[in-house]
Design brief:
binds D-MYO-inositol-1-phosphate; binds calcium ion; Fructose-1,6-Bisphosphatase, Chain A, domain 1; about 40% helix; about 270 residues; alpha+beta; D-Maltodextrin-Binding Protein, domain 2
Length: about 270
């Protein structure tokens, strides 16, 4: 079985595990304040890891809950449940995200939303799909017609939270609306599907965005950092758009930070 098909098979297994346990009593703990992990997250990641290693025993696996194993040019990047807070509160907006890369190049990405039975997937140069339907980003080219989304870091002391609250206000004024849906992976999948025109967030991790990045790019979208520079999985911000509005979006975010005086405060803090 090739890596994409294996990722799709694993995503279905993860989805079944989520649906089977969502109304059961399960243990929930806090990794840090406001950052939930449930026993379902842990069980899914363990199961997926075991299945991958059965097929590809030498591969490296990076998962949110158990960290990295091994070192190999072939790497799987897994978020067992993206949107755990929604899952725990029985809000049906969560998914599993599985990506596969070789030598740092994303080759396959799968995001499965069990509540809607939607399997978003892409392979490098092979296009992006949801179930059997090909995906394309939206064609909007005016900011004021766009519907966009963001997310907020769980650490309430973080400077990124202050910055993003400013950006939320700025972007809400210039667009049709800003959503905070609670799953970065699904936010990216929705940009790929043209349901959202853009998404941005600070301080995400590789497991939140690896699959979504490839799916957005294969659907014709553009990914960069918030300041417009090129994005890597360990970058401290991500901006995904339908391509058409990318530069306008970068400019609007830059202006938002400038107007709030945040750039100035940051460069002063760097000098001191
Ligand atoms: C979180 C979700 C959320 C985003 C947070 C992530 P988790 O992932 O993607 O939308 O705003 O920054 O940590 O904890 O549910 O896997
Ligand atoms: Ca996540
Ligand atoms: Ca997670």
């Amino acid at each position: 079985m090739n890596e994409l098909n294996l990722a799709k098979k694993l995503a279905r297994i993860a989805g079944q595990m989520m649906l089977a346990s969502k109304t059961q009593d399960f243990d929930i703990s806090m990794k840090s304040k406001n950052d939930y992990v449930s026993e379902v997250d842990l069980a899914i990641e363990k199961r997926l890891k075991n299945e991958i290693l059965k097929h590809y025993p030498e591969d490296e696996i990076l998962g949110e809950e158990y960290g990295g194993t091994g070192e190999n040019g072939r790497r799987w990047i897994i978020d067992p449940i993206d949107g755990t807070t929604n899952f725990v509160h029985q809000i049906p907006f969560y998914c599993v995200s599985i990506a596969f890369e070789t030598d740092g190049i994303l080759k396959a990405g799968v995001i499965y939303s069990p509540e809607n039975d939607e399997m978003f997937f892409a392979s490098l140069d092979g296009g992006a799909f949801v179930n059997d339907q090909k995906l394309s980003v939206s064609l909007k080219d005016q900011l004021d017609t766009t519907l966009i989304a963001t997310g907020f870091v769980t650490n309430k002391q973080s400077i990124s939270l202050t910055k993003n609250l400013e950006l939320f206000t700025t972007m809400a004024a210039q667009t049709r609306g800003v959503r905070r849906l609670g799953s970065a992976a699904l936010d990216l999948a929705y940009v790929a599907a043209g349901r959202l025109d853009a998404f941005w967030e600070y301080d995400l991790s590789a497991w939140d965005i690896a699959a979504g990045k490839l799916i957005v790019e294969e659907a014709g979208g553009k990914i960069s950092r918030i300041d417009g520079d090129s994005h890597h999985l360990d970058s401290d911000s991500i901006l995904a758009t339908n391509f058409m509005i990318h530069q306008d979006f970068v400019n609007a975010l830059k202006n938002g930070l400038k107007t709030a005086g945040i750039e100035e405060r940051e460069s002063l803090a760097e000098k001191n």
